[in-house]
TrEMBL record:
Organism: Psychroflexus salarius
Keyword Signal: no
Annotated protein name in UniProt: Cysteine synthase
UniProt family annotation: Belongs to the cysteine synthase/cystathionine beta-synthase family.
Binding annotation for pyridoxal 5'-phosphate: 72, 175-179, 256
Gene3D superfamilies registered for this protein in UniProt: 3.40.50.1100
SUPFAM superfamilies referenced in this protein's UniProt entry, alphabetically: Tryptophan synthase beta subunit-like PLP-dependent enzymes (SSF53686)
Known cofactor(s): pyridoxal 5'-phosphate
Modified residues annotated as N6-(pyridoxal phosphate)lysine in this record: 42
Catalysed reactions, semicolon-separated: O-acetyl-L-serine + hydrogen sulfide = L-cysteine + acetate
Pfam families: PALP
Length: 295
């Protein structure tokens, strides 16, 4: 049967780390979200946010859609919007990688760049000001329940099934927090003893895709009760791990995935036994123009 590109979102592979864990009773599994058609975990949320808004009649092909993004969500929204014939403007910091900007434009989105110094917060402020005119619709991924529900519907069930219900720990970087909120909600419904570990940058560290939000910008979908532990990582750890994953595990990913893997390895070293699943949220080719793979 012929499929749409949208039908290929989700059902990403789970692979076991071969060199990182010494304890045979501890398994570290990586969920490879770069296998989504748009290249990242954000395809899931993008599809669910757009599809549900269309079903509710909140948007049509005449709507002017606008969304702030640090990259992956924008690419995912641009891809899904192209399939539905939607008019989309994406707003991101001007220091975003060239690959991201070009990919969004290739999918037909308009891209507006804001101050690199203000980062994603500046992009969010820009969109909020645009919204005041009343002529735009924003998905507001930071406060949109359809963001986390995408992972409740798909990511959580996939992990539960693929590990044959044996998953004991789930590790995810925290940006919009949609991935960790939705996956946590599903997994804890199946087994409340499953531990959910969020990954944040250390104070002063800048890791694309991972945030430690100021209180006034904390995503409204975030519920701290759904996260059992937070592990902080620094830029060097995230960079070194992303490079290690490519060179020794054959997993080509970005810096936030390196951060999550760093936290996952730290966690595994503390366990006597367990099945740990860590999200690899995108592909490394999205970072080739950045310093990440400049040795």
């Amino acid at each position: 049967m012929n499929k749409s590109i949208i039908d290929l979102v989700g059902n990403t592979p789970l692979v076991e780390a071969k060199t990182l864990i010494k304890n045979p009773k501890v398994k570290l599994l990586f969920k490879l979200e770069g296998h989504n058609p748009g290249g990242s975990v954000k395809d899931r949320a993008a599809f669910n946010m757009i599809n549900e808004a269309l079903k509710r009649g909140e948007i049509t092909t005449n709507s002017r859609l606008i969304e702030p993004t640090s990259g992956n969500t924008g690419i995912a929204l641009a891809m899904i919007a192209s399939v539905f014939g939607l008019n989309l403007e994406l707003v991101m910091p001007e220091n975003a990688t060239e690959e991201r900007v070009k990919t969004m434009k290739a999918y037909g989105a308009k891209v507006t760049l804001t101050s690199a110094e203000e980062g994603i917060i500046g992009s969010r402020d820009y969109v909020e000001n645009k919204m005041k005119s009343g002529n735009y619709y924003s998905f507001n991924q930071f406060a949109n329940d359809d963001n986390w529900k995408a992972h409740y519907k798909t990511t959580g069930p996939e992990i539960w099934k693929a590990t044959e219900h044996k998953v004991t720990h789930f590790v995810s970087s925290m940006g919009t927090t949609g991935t960790i909120m939705g996956t946590s909600t599903f997994l804890k419904e199946q087994n409340p003893s499953i531990k959910i570990i969020g990954v944040q940058p250390e104070d002063g560290a800048k890791i694309p895709g991972i945030r430690k939000w100021p209180k006034e910008y904390l995503p409204k979908i975030f519920n701290s009760k759904k996260v059992d532990q937070v592990i902080e990582v620094n830029e060097k750890e995230a960079t070194d791990m992303a490079r290690y994953l490519a060179a020794h595990e054959g997993i080509f990913s970005g810096m936030s995935s390196g951060g999550a893997a760093t936290a996952a390895v730290k966690l595994c070293e503390q366990l006597d036994e367990g099945v740990v699943v860590s999200i690899v949220c995108d592909r490394g080719d999205r970072y080739l123009s950045s310093p990440l793979f400049k040795y």
